[in-house]
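User: What would this chain look like folded?
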Amino acid sequence: MNLRTPLFALVVAVAASPLFAVEPNTLSAAEKSAGWKLLFDGTSLAGWRGYKTEPVGAGWKAQDGALVLTAPKAGDIVTAAEYGDFELSFEWNISEGGNSGVIYRAGLGDSAPHRTGPEYQVLDNAKATDNKLDNHLAGSLYDLGKGAPRELAKPAGQWNASRIVVRGWKVEHWLNGTKAAAADLASPEGKALIAASKFKAVPKFATLARGHIAFQDHGNVVSYRSIKIRELK
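Assistant: Here's the prediction, encoded as structure tokens.
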């Protein structure tokens, strides 16, 4: 009896499952049924705006099926819509030495999105200058609590798969299938994390019930794709 045959058949069946879309910037029937929506269609910047101005900065392009920061000083790009509780899935590819981030529940009208919303760090862990602190590494809840393991992120130039889950102010960060960080920022423990961080003197930080999702211009080339969201009731 070949004990490997059933296992091989199972692997093939899972790989062929329609639960998750294989092609970038698409949704499977199961994802649509579960309430997922695309925030980026791979070809246009529809549904996006600049953080400080309505038009998106010229450095952001829909290029080769990805949302790409091609040049610095474009400013952060944010969703036109606001979100409260949600699950966000996306892939990212950072340039060598690069730094970026995804900021959520950000309010408009401040000097930068990170003054209201927490950040999912996007980083080249190997060569970025901001790679000294564990909670500044890729996948981390930036500058808050325990950092993500350094080895979770793939090297610069390769695609990483990320997920953010937000319920109330309970947040989870996932990187390449592993939970990288988690915290309840409204709890006494979460407020202590904020008080020990660079956001301690920012009164609106992690206080908004709804806000925009922002992709950060940190001056380095970065690409995002398969940006999908489903709102949680």
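Residues 1-18 have pLDDT under 50 and may be disordered. If you want, I can go into more detail on any region.
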